């Protein structure tokens, strides 16, 4: 994160950090002696708690500070100066939810925006530019398989259901640091698309190029600042080679800001096709997965479970809006009996409701797709904030949703590249290699074991 963004974030969260328990312990006595009011009782909104960096360790803060444009430019400059044998091969992976942002900003359709963005990145010195949809396909397929396994052991495993999706790092951080064992055993172990893409680049692609992982510098372009936190997780780092699966996450807004700094116009950019991961010749066609602008985990798992568990083909999914547009559920029924009940819950206010029900044992869902940003991934604060800052630009989000929905849908089950990689890279669907590279574990983190008493519900 750039120094400017860090400073803005600290300023925005200053009132919240004054109220957090950690800071109260350090400063409360002094504040009372000086006559300042020290707040008591439930004060801090969950979203404010999560946006505060007060609980970051020094090591985490250092790693996140390296997730910046300055760090990428440093690597590019080193490539110009150092011996060729010490060059880093730069690889960029673009999340499909970032492309609508560039389509709107460039005033072109989403396919052309991918060509222009690729042209810009390669003009900087990036050698390969991939689309992360392939990695998302792995994540969806592994999530589908895990849900079926959890459903079949639900009667003798109290942690099997509900299953919570695991692709949102804001949700994961909150679960590990605040909710602990209430939630973490329920989180799907499939890695997020970003981190599977990291494995694809640093394991599969590096071997194809006859390079070691530390010879690659992997940048991900994402809609969300929280993806920077995910990239620096300990389990996604090869300590022996001092190499992370994802070296740097840059938001769509940061890339666009760089274009403005360099005074690059859309007309100046070459249209360059994205590189296919498998190295096939020709232009890689852009596709999306089902869903409302995220990766569609709910829809894919719902349709798969209906067929696998009950022999029912579901072609269209009907969402029922409950509290608001970001709290919706879908139901599978047969002869008046409810067979499956899933929910999509976006935004921290709705997540608070979910957790409140979880504590009371009143969650009727077998699967919940959880995302911390209201509206889902397209509304990530790394691309959807208004130019004034602080608020989501609703008109921009609507334009991005329209652009994203124009992409054709392709089911991961019918993607031949995925099947090839399962065999050639992972040695089969259920191999130890697949389990290691496509899954991870979420854990209670020691510094926080329960919901802090100052948390507002």
UniProtKB/TrEMBL annotation:
InterPro entries noted in UniProt: Cytosolic_Fe-S_CAF, Fe_hydrogenase, Fe_hydrogenase_lsu_C, Fe_hydrogenase_ssu
A Pfam family the protein falls into: Fe_hyd_lg_C
SUPFAM superfamilies with a match to the protein in the record: Fe-only hydrogenase
Residue span(s) of domain Iron hydrogenase small subunit: 390-446
Similarity-based family: Belongs to the NARF family.
Record protein name field: Nuclear prelamin A recognition factor
